[in-house]
Structures are given as structure tokens and as C-alpha cells.
Amino acid sequence: MALLTDNISIKTIIGLGSAISGDVHADGFIRVEGDVDGNLESTGHVDIGHEARINGNITAQSVVLGGIVLGDIYAPNQIKLLSSSAVIGNIFTCNLEIEENVIFHGHCIALKKEEDFNQASERFSNEMSIRSKVV
């Protein structure tokens, strides 16, 4: 099953051994093999390799994760967590696939119907915002 039906050519690559400090915004497919200390945002698909480390939130249409993310992942089309992955943060998607041995610590919203997904995501974000102001 293809994650996206649009152009799947890689437009941005962050190679193994590379380290970026700051937010990354890109159109289309992003492949990450290195480290990113900041948020990662794409209009398309994000593919995170087994050696990659992301310290920030990821926003994309779909995400395949093989590395480690310390932050939230928002990908309405699909999120796939490979057996080598770890997520310390929240997951928001309409389609979630998790292989064996994944480490996940956080909340998950995975609802098929777009309307239900949007309402649950907004409600959760509002609750987290209120909690952060109280603590």
C-alpha cells in the first residue's frame, strides 16, 4: 500500500552524520537519516531512518519512523512505527501501524473518520494547553 498517491520523489535529504539545530520546513517528501533538534514540517511524506534522532514535533501528511522522536507526531494520512523506533510524545493520525518492539510513551489519537479525528485532536490540544498553564 502506497502512503501517498502524489509525487513520491525525495525533495529533501538530511543525511547520516548531519545535525540540524532549528526548525525544518519543506514541501514534499523528506528523508531524514541524521539528527534534527527542532520541529520538522512537510506538506508531504516524512521518512525517518533507523539512525535518525528528532528532538521536536513532526507535522506531515504521512510518516514512517525507524529512529527516535522526542516530540509529537501529527500525520493525518498515516503513521507507521517500525520495530527500531521510539516515540516519547503524542501521536495524531487516521491510520496507525505499529510493528513489534516499538517503544511508545504518550497519548494516541487514531480515528478513521476525518471529522472525528479533527474533533478529538482539537479537544486533546485544548486539554494539554490548559494543563500546561495550570502546572
Strand order of the largest sheet: 1-4-7-10-13-16
Q: How would a textbook summarize the main sheet?
A: 6 strands, parallel
Q: Report the sheet-strand fraction.
A: 35-45%
Spatial extent as radius of gyration: 14 Å
The sequence of SSEs as H and E is: EEEEEEEEEEEEEEEEEEH
N- to C-terminal distance = 43 Å
Average of per-residue pLDDT values: 89
Q: What is the tally of beta strands?
A: 18
Q: pLDDT below 50 for ≥5 consecutive residues: which ranges? A: 1-6
Helices, by number, come to 1
The class by helix and strand makeup works out as alpha/beta
Which short descriptors sum up this protein?
135 residues; alpha/beta; 6-stranded parallel beta sheet
Structure notes:
- There is one protein chain.
- This protein is α/β, with parallel strands linked by helices.
- 16% of the residues lie in helices and 42% in strands.
- It has one helix spanning 114-134, and strands at residues 10-14, 19-21, 24-26, 29-32, 35-37, 40-42, 45-48, 53-54, 58-59, 62-65, 68-70, 73-74, 78-81, 86-88, 91-93, 96-98, 103-105, 108-110.
- The chain has a six-stranded parallel β-sheet, with no helix packed on it.
Summarize the entry for a quick read.
The chain is of the alpha/beta class and about 140 residues long. The protein is about 15% helix and about 40% strand. The protein has one helix and 18 strands.
